[in-house]
Specification:
mainly alpha; 5 helices; disordered N terminus
Amino acid sequence: MVRRALLLLPLILVACDHPTAADCRKAVENIDRLTAGMENDRERNPEAAVRACRARSSTAFVRCVIDAKTNEDLQACESKQKR
């Protein structure tokens, strides 16, 4: 039993770095607010963006996006994420 728990520990720790749906929703809303008028008029699916955020983003990146006040702040978040 202990051996199984030790084998699963790395998976649990990696999963812990995924942001919550609520935080991803806030990040998506902030991106929409900051980039208003910059996006083309294609139909968007915010819930798909939230799912992608949860699967691909770190908690630190999402926190950065939530705290962003300008487009430059958003770009800085993206630069940090790529490192």
